[in-house]
Each structure stands twice: as C-alpha cells, then as structure tokens.
Write a structure and sequence with these properties.
By secondary structure, the chain is an alpha/beta fold. The chain has a single domain, classed as NAD(P)-binding Rossmann-like Domain (Rossmann fold), CATH 3.40.50.720. It is 46% helix and 15% strand. The longest helix has 29 residues. The structure holds nicotinamide-adenine-dinucleotide.
C-alpha cells in the first residue's frame, strides 16, 4: 500500500470554513492537493476563504448552508456530487459557543447550541454517507473540543454537552461504517486563537497562553495538520478516536 500524507485530488467538504479553525483546515487540505468545498452559514466569509485558497493556486468552491438544517445539508451533498462526483473527506467543524450560565440560559439558547454543534454533525454525516458507502471510501473528521469531554467551563454547559456528545456520536457512527473503508474520528482542540475565541475572551487570551505547557495556543493550522493526518492514507485503520491538540493544556494537574 502506498503510505503517504498525500490527499492529492481528494474532494473535501469543510463546514464552518468561513473563518477560524475551519478556514485553517480548508487551507491545509487545499495546500496538500484536495479540492475543498467551503461550507458556511455566512456566504461572504465562505467566499473569502475560497478566494484565499484560489490565490494560493488551489481549487475550491463555496456553498452557503446551515449545518443544523437537513434541507441545506442535502443540497450541499448533492451539489458536491454534481460538481465533483465524489465526497472523500468530510470535516464537520461548524460550531458556536455563546456563553450563558444555566440559571440564565433559555431553552432556545440550549437548543440552538445543540442543534448547530451536535445535530449538525449528524445531519452532515447523514447527507454524505450514501455517497461514501457507494464509493466504499470516506474520511470523516469532527471538531469536538477538550471542553466537555475532558474539561469544563462556566457558561459553556450547553457547549460542553454538545462537544462530549460529538465524541459519543462519532464512536458509534464509526462502528456502523467500519467495514466500508470509512473512518470517523474527532479532533479535540484546546483554545485556539480565532475570530470566535477573541470575541469570546474579549482579548484575554494571554493568561491561557501562559498556562499552556508548550507556551503557546494552538493555531488553526495545527488543527488542520491533525485533520490532514486522519484524512490521509497514513491513517486508514484509525477510527472512532480523538486527537487532542492543546499544547498539553489538559494534562496539567
Ligand atoms: P469561528 O466563530 O471563528 O468560526 C465558526 C464558523 O462557523 C463561522 O464562519 C460561522 O459563520 C460558521 N457557522 C456558525 N454556525 C453555522 C451553521 N449553523 N452552519 C454553518 N456554518 C456555521 O469559530 P472557531 O473558533 O473557528 O471554531 C470552529 C469549531 O472549533 C467549532 O466547532 C468550535 O466549537 C471548535 N472549537 C474551537 C476552539 C477554539 O478555541 N477556537 C476550541 C475547541 C473547539
């Protein structure tokens, strides 16, 4: 078997790729030869990522879609199959983290976070699986978080539930398609410096950086590189697993 990092010519979908981690994943995959479909609820930012990827000489196209909407996700899968005939890599990365303590959290706020972060992974996978089963090939990588599964954070109980939920979902989903040459794994990022976290932390990322054993926060590119490994031919027998990318943050006693 040809073992390499190459994902040359593979067709990848990355959700939430209009900014932050998703954009980093999209760029790493594109720089390594994949044709990347950038999916985001914000059409303008999806187009911006695509322009950036094209400027680097790579192939990419944008689709505006809401990952928590089944009709949208069916349209995404159909459009990608129409344009490229395949779906090789699915990165389910779109997610939101609006803070709210439980005492103040409305049912709507809870539902929204679970819908986008957790149901979004179900709908994205469900929409792409028929094609992956047909081609007997698929690499699915979900963006979970250390928050929820490993650590906790005040004001992020809904988010924590969604991210821990992704890991449970991912493991059972991986079993369902293990015989079909489809692997399903997750990344657990620590705090990454993105538009979203800068908004969330109001510029207060330095203390987190100081508490990180490696002395720096991870970057979207760090996450992209972990995704690249799981999507590549080096990882055909890794499924139902997670890779923590947090500079050692979650292992400190
Ligand atoms: P971000 O806010 O910078 O980017 C998220 C992108 O997703 C945006 O472009 C947004 O428009 C899009 N999006 C939001 N809702 C959507 C929907 N319903 N459908 C489609 N697209 C939608 O966020 P980020 O920091 O890059 O986070 C990306 C993912 O990584 C999220 O799942 C987040 O939970 C996870 N994560 C982030 C960190 C971090 O520190 N940034 C840490 C752990 C996990």
């Amino acid at each position: 078997m040809d073992s390499s990092f190459s994902i040359q010519g593979k067709i990848a979908i990355v959700t939430g790729a209009g900014s932050g981690i998703g954009r980093g994943i999209a760029e790493v995959l594109a720089n390594n030869g994949a044709k990347v479909v950038v999916v985001d609820i914000d059409e303008t930012s999806a187009k911006r990522t695509v322009e950036q990827i094209r400027r680097a000489g790579n192939i990419s196209s944008p689709i505006a879609a809401d990952v928590s909407n089944w009709v949208d996700m069916q349209k995404v899968a159909a459009a990608v199959i129409k344009e490229y005939n395949r779906i090789d890599i699915l990165c389910e990365n779109a997610g939101i983290y609006p803070p709210a303590k439980i005492i103040e959290m409305s049912e709507e706020q809870w539902d929204k976070v679970i819908d986008v972060n957790l149901k979004g992974c179900f709908l994205g996978l469900k929409s792409c699986l028929p094609q992956m089963l047909k081609q007997n090939y698929g690499r699915v990588i979900m963006t979970s978080s250390i928050t929820g599964y490993r650590t906790g954070e005040i004001g992020l109980s809904h988010y924590s539930a969604s991210k821990a939920g992704i890991i449970g979902f991912m493991r059972s989903a991986a079993l369902e398609v293990a015989k079909n040459n489809i692997t399903i794994n997750a990344i657990e990022p620590g705090t990454i410096s993105t538009e979203g976290t800068r908004r969330f932390a109001a510029g207060e990322l330095k203390p987190l950086e100081d508490r990180t054993p490696t002395g720096r926060l991870s970057t979207p590119e760090d996450i992209g590189n972990a995704v690249l490994f799981l999507a590549s031919d080096l990882a055909p027998n890794i499924t139902g697993q997670t890779i923590v990318v947090d500079g050692g943050y979650s292992i400190v006693e």
